[in-house]
Structure formats: structure tokens, C-alpha cells
Amino acid sequence: MESTAFEINDIIEIALTKYSDMVRRICFLYLNNSTDVDDIFQEVFLKMLQRKTPFESDKHEKAWLIRVTINKCKDTLKSFWRKNIDSIEGIDIPFEDKSENELMQIVLSIPQKYKDVIYLHYYEGYTVPEMAKLLKKRENTIYSQLHRARLIIRQKLGGKEHEYAF
Fold this sequence. Notes:
By secondary structure, this protein is mainly alpha-helical.
């Protein structure tokens, strides 16, 4: 059964509404550059548009988008251009709450393997077993990375607790 252009546009519009913020945040976690973020954002949703098979569920669709976004970001970071050119643009992630902005700046400053687990757990609500499957790592590795990430964040917060209870 073929989808009409109208149905495909509806599917993409719904996905953009539901997941655009998530895809942009993941891109910022990796790239710290709004031009690269925009490029990857477009590539991810273009890839979704080109996908021939339907998703099994909303959960499957979300996991697929996260995986594709992470992979596209990693590809960009490995590119010749990215390795040989320094970015002159700073990070600009607007938050209404100043403490949330401060926290995101701290999360952005930690090593990538910790950013992934913190973001997926606290911002997207994934459990450790779900993250292990999504990131293709052992559960114990995810538990260790989550524990270490919390310690680093707590230390950078000066030992004070945050509402996310790091």
C-alpha cells in the first residue's frame, strides 16, 4: 500500500511537532554550533521522509530518530572539515529558567559519553535498559556512566543539589 504525498506530509509534520526540540537538543549536545545543528536537523528528517517502512510504535520512531541524530552528529564530528576548522560560534540554547540554562551549560561541558546518558535519562525519560539498547552498550556500562556523570555535575554545581537530583 503506497502512501500519498498528503499522508507523508502529515507524518513528517507530526514528527516535527513531536520531536524537533529533542533532535535539536541532541545536535547541540554534540555539535555546539547552530549551523551544523540546522544541517543535521534537516538531514535527520529528510532521512525519515525517505524511510520506506513504517515504525512499529511511537517509541520505535523516537528511538530511531535519536539513533539517526547521534550517528549523523558523530559523522559530522569525524569529517575532515570539522576536524580542521575551529568554530567561532558559541552555544546559544535559550531557556526561560536561568538555573536550567546553567545546568545545560554544565551538561554541555562534560565528556560526550556522559552527556548522552544524562540527556537520555533526565531529558527524554529513558531507563538504563532502554539506553543500553539504544546506545548499544551493556547496562552496567550505562549505570557506571550515569553515576560518574552525576558526580561530575554535582562537583561542577559546587556540591549543591539541583531539581533533577544529580
